[in-house]
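Person: Please comment on this record:
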Amino acid sequence: MDLPLGIDRSDDNIKNLDGLIQQITLQKSCAFIGAGLSHDAGYPLFGEAVSRLKTSAEAIIGHDIDLPADENWDQIEFLRNLMGEENYRTELIRIFGPNGKLDYLPVHQLISSIPFLSWITTNFDYCLENAAMNISKQVTVQYYPELDITRLRDCHIFHIHGVIRPTNPEGLIGSIVFSNRDYELAYQMNTGLPRFLASLSEFCTLVFIGYSLGDSDLIKVIRATQLELERRGNNEVQVGLGKRIQPKHYIIMHQEAQVNANAIRELGLFPICYCGDKDRHSVLQKLLSYIRMRTTGIRYPEPVVYREMFEDGFHG
């Protein structure tokens, strides 16, 4: 099957792409969807959302605001305190609610048709759900703080930072993780979200799509899990159990995208790159369509029990 135009044809890129396709066909992969995927549907990126919230806050309090030179979520916390809780929640719904935005994009439909175990997203929108519904795919929605890792193989869409429903958006507004106080609560050690992410990154291949990887809390949890797996693996080798295999994680990205290179190195992500100056989403669609054609229509054998976590088996 010919690789579509616009895909990096370097040996490393092709190797990474083939590796990802293998993981998907083995039913070991989850898509991890970021804000960049819904941007063309009318939803803002993180920095754009801060700017819109600032404009709204200035209109409410009647004068210009100088934001502190902090992280985005600290700036949001500052604006939240100025606006008051009711105004803040109203503005969140206006900024991230579905009014005036597209239900989904072709890339959402392609991603929902690729046989991932489930779809994980930090987005608040329903684009993935709408796209799945359009192709009659049955999906179930989970959202923070109720994240059940045991349902990972059941075609769930996990909104790990909460969700704003198209109908009755006020009903779940309390699930949103957006300002500093939300992050501090959601990412407390050994609570639901960190445990979910730790289990996810321990047992599944993650495929980041639409991410700049600027979310330090998320990166920290996944990296801590990798370090713990390395520690366990070293201990297991010492007692003769063999070498533990860590899941590989990938990122699908435009060659010129402003992605956190340090996070890519820290997490050991395998990049799958595409290019094209005009319509980046059209090239991404071609790449996702290629992945879908390579991973669907395959008959899987009945599962067997074996110790796939170890390369060398038992010794002694």
